[in-house]
Amino acid sequence: MSGPTTDSLVVSLRENPLDPKEKVFRTALNDRGEFKITVPVAVPTKADLVYGDDVAPLYLDPGTDLDVRFKGDDMAGTLKFKPNDVPTGIKAKISNGSTLTTEQRHRQQAANANNYLAEFDAQFVENDGFQPLPDNIQLYEAPYISFLEYRRKHELNFLEDRAARQSFTQEFYNYAKAEVIYSYANDRLMYQDLREQVVNTEGRLKMTPDYYSFLNDPALLNSPESVQNELYHEFLINYVHYAVAQAKHLRSDPSFYMASYALASKQLNGAIRPIILGRILQESFRFGHVKQSAAMLADYRTFDPKNHYYSTLKTDFDKHKDFSIGAPAPNFKLTSATGDTVHLHDFTGKLVYLNFWKSTNGLCLRDLAYAQELIRKFEGKNIVFINIALDENEQAWRQLVTIKKLPGVHVRVAGGGLRSALAQSYALQEVPTYMLVGEDGTFLNTKPKRLSSRAAVDEINQSFGKASTYSSTIELHPAGGK
């Protein structure tokens, strides 16, 4: 490295597509900017080379040995790879490297692959003109498709030109081609949703009848040679969401994740199926009903008999289950501002909006006016608003509640604040924190809309009776796909 700007370099990778934790390999630079790093991989693996704030893609092939060079102040723009212990010059170029030994040829292919990624990144990925954002997403349907097809054509030409002039392994060629195919497919699939979010001066576009016809290609869903490609994974999870929505299952519906799981288990096959089913499960662990998640996780073992991913998913489920939809909200016994004893289970049969706050917190105080307005809107409805103060100063809290005549139920945790047992039982990290508890005493939403949000009213209205709807959905839509 010439002109080092920091004293270490990192290679990071994910061995398990369902484990968000990356494996990180770090090495120090010597005073000449030299470094050596060994990264153990069992199969060809996509990784990242990280130096300071610069990140560049890597393709690591087992058994290869590369010379890597770049400038410290511009890694992405100057990155070059050469194979170690491979003759250079005309001999190495004759017959696409046919004079090399098998090991040398493999190293040359690895260098070719990584040089391709660096060039592809500079020409297409880092070029806004070839990306939907920020400008191309504003195009209407016909010109947007033209843009995508133009980009796909040039990316494929770039790949085929490089493949004709230098040697790639078949695995890397498949990976690189999948990058092009699924970049096109994903950007086309997500166009309608993304444009609606970005171009907020217009309504949602109505697409022509054949806009989504490209999804009818069966090879697009089941592509064994693309299994290692993350863009393929992203396309499939977005496709499942789209297909389930077309079947009238909205994200807010209790049946959404079970319907997604059932669809993926039927339409996908081979090595990609347990990966995408695992992705759906991870979404359900965070946003779905805990009993539905448990049922699907038990069914998942059918698709992962060798336990490639199940243990990772089980750990993830255990991490989230206590605060998932359908998990029982921890009961409490607190004293109200009027001196009464209040338990959460006193309100079984009612929707409960919990507001954890402090009278000394500016954001909490700002939300007071919105809280009062929201409570008035639901006066006489089957809902109670419980405001749980984490104040250390009882007198100041009680005085504020009394003088302001704050509506709703007001209780206080007697000492400890965010370190108190109650705060820990609800995994509180900050105030204000809001939660919705269903009529059966289980969590409906641990991150509802803020009191100040205009959408809070609609969200609460949609929450009445939803807890019982989830219970019936578990019976109506069992996990399946065997």
UniProtKB/TrEMBL annotation:
<keyword id="KW-1015">Disulfide bond</keyword>
<dbReference type="Pfam" id="PF08534">
    <property type="entry name" value="Redoxin"/>
</dbReference>
<dbReference type="InterPro" id="IPR013766">
    <property type="entry name" value="Thioredoxin_domain"/>
</dbReference>
<dbReference type="InterPro" id="IPR050553">
    <property type="entry name" value="Thioredoxin_ResA/DsbE_sf"/>
</dbReference>
<dbReference type="InterPro" id="IPR013740">
    <property type="entry name" value="Redoxin"/>
</dbReference>
<keyword id="KW-0676">Redox-active center</keyword>
<dbReference type="InterPro" id="IPR036249">
    <property type="entry name" value="Thioredoxin-like_sf"/>
</dbReference>
<feature type="domain" description="Thioredoxin">
    <location>
        <begin position="323"/>
        <end position="469"/>
    </location>
</feature>
<keyword id="KW-0201">Cytochrome c-type biogenesis</keyword>
<protein>
    <submittedName>
        <fullName>TlpA disulfide reductase family protein</fullName>
    </submittedName>
</protein>
